[in-house]
Each structure stands twice: as structure tokens, then as C-alpha cells.
Amino acid sequence: MALEKEHEVEEPLISDHNLEAASSEWFRNAASESKSRKAVKFQRRLLFFLLTVLPWNLLALIILWNFMHYVRCPVQHLLEYELRYFGTGHKGDPSPYFGEASPELDKAWEDLYPSLYQLIPKQQAAKLANKTLIFPHDPQRRYVIELDVFHQLHCLNMIRQSTHPEYYKGAVPGVIDGNKEDLLFGPHHVAHCIESIRQALMCHVDVTPATWIWNEDAKVMQNVYATPHTCRNFDKIRDWASVGKYGANVEAGFDFEYREMNDPLDPKTVKKPDFALHVEFNPALCASAIGVGSKRSTARTACDVIARPRAADLEQRLG
Questions:
Q1: Is the pLDDT at 129 greater than 80, yes or no?
Q2: Spatial distance between the Cα atoms of 259 and 250, rounded to a whole number of angstroms
């Protein structure tokens, strides 16, 4: 019995295989728990970023976007959008802006831009991307701008009138007279207007799709232009630009050859002060120069350089 006990081997509670498996399982659980903790930390940081940092960044971008548009456009706050259907000008779809030249047609076009130029205060002019000038002879010293939409309409009207040269000959100053090329309706002006309108069309890029239908009577495909377009409210901008608070009344003419001076937004127009009237004056120094044994002409010249009027007055008082 004793011999049997000597040879009896105690079996471990956990075998090496089970121990290795348990150890591996522990490490896997520990690694998984570590990854889980890291994931939770990452989620918390992401949530903090989304709830705090990101909204402020978005707000800053929105403010910057609005500011960039505002400084370039003093009517940004008036912009509204609406759906409009375009007409064709063909028979059965008349337009007040299309037809043979007539006083009524001219009036319709002129009403599109009752004031070609607009006047804005210094506070708005200072925020423009490009500097502008004070409108000549304006009592309020406002700054002149020209909203590009009105320049484009003016150009389109010039092109329209150029298609009726006989009707408009002599209607306005500068029209073709004999062999002298017209400065308003001449080839150069029309070419400028065409180029201006081309750039405007390509800038705004209206992507409204015009569709096609089958004309059963004519047995042909034809365009359908009566498609809703998303447009800015033109009437609001025209009302703002009309003669009044912002519109420039140029019935008497635009004095292009006159430049307002002392423009606070243009240092080149600020008149330099008279040095003799504004330089610091030292009466004692000037009196000393006159009283010492130097020649009076030399002393007088020195006083003139310092301050001519005051030096002359001082010399008179000194006898």
C-alpha cells in the first residue's frame, strides 16, 4: 500500500492545456475590453466634437459666407427667389418688350432701369470689393455704383435699337451723323454689350431644362420654353434702384469730368494742408532770430519758413 502511494501522482486541478486555453481567453477578453474602452473614449471625443466644435465652425463659415456676399452687394438683404415662366415672344405669346420700334416699346424698356446709377452711403461703399467715387455734385456726398443687371439691360436695349438704325437715327446724342461713327450705337459699343451679356449668361448658368413635345399638326418636334425658372425678384431690386433714396437722378447729365475731392475712401483726393499754416510755431525761437545781430532779411526768411502769417504778426508787434 505504501508503494502504491509513492507511485501515486497528483493530478493538477487545471491541466496545462486548459491553463493555456484559459490564459488565451483572458488575454482575448483583456484585449477586447481595452478596445472597447478605446472605442468608448473615441465615441465620447467624437460626440464632444460634433456637439461643440463643429457647430461653431459651421456658424463661422455661415457668417463668413454672408459677409463675403454682403460686402460685394449692398442689396443682398433684398434678394428673394420666385418661380417664373418664360415667354417666347412668338405669335400668340406677346411681350411688351418685343415688336416693331415705337415710343411705347421704348418706354417699356426704359422702365426696366429708371435709374442706371445708384448712390450708396460711405459705410456701404467702404465694404465694396472695388473702390468707387463720390457722385459728382451730390449734396450728401454719396458714392456711385451701377448694379450690373441694369448695365446688362441697358446693353440689351442698345442692341435692340441697333437693329432699327433708321428709326433711332438722331434720337439721342452721338448717333451716326454722316461719316462720323456713332459713339453709342456704333460697332464698338454693340460689341462691348454683346460681350457683357455673354459673360453674364455664363456667370449665372441657368440650368433650367427646356423640354420637347411632338406637334401633331406640324408633324415636328418643338421646344417647350414654358418651364418654371427659379429667379430673383427683379421688381424689388428695381424699386430699390429707382430715383429716390438710392437712385441717382441724372436727368441733368452725369458730369464725368468732375472729381469730388477730400474723399475719405480715396487718399489721393485729400488736399494736403498748407505747411506754412499748420507747422508748429515757436515764437521765442523766431523772436530770438529777429533780435540777434543777424540780418533782418535772413531772420524774416527763417520766420516765413516756420509760419509766415504768425511770424509777420510777431515782427510787427516787436516793432
A1: yes
A2: 16
Q: Are the beta carbons of 101 and 109 closer than 8 angstroms?
A: no
Q: Which domain holds residue 47?
A: 26-72
Number of domains in the chain: 3
Let me know if residue 130 belongs to a domain: yes
Determine if residue 215 is left, alpha or beta; phi over 0 gives left, psi from -120 to 50 gives alpha, anything else beta.
beta
Asked whether residue 170 is assigned to any structural domain, the reply reads: yes
For the whole model, what pTM was predicted?
A: 0.61
State the number of CA atoms in the 13 A half-sphere of 112 facing the CB.
16
Residue 213 resides in a domain: yes
Q: Are residues 190 and 293 in the same domain?
A: no
Cell of 318: 516787436
Please, what is the angle between helix 148-162 and helix 234-241, to 10°?
100
User: What confidence tens digit (pLDDT) does each residue in 92-104 have?
Assistant: 788 999 889 999 9
* Cell of residue 100, nine digits: 416693331
Residues 255 and 287 in one domain: no
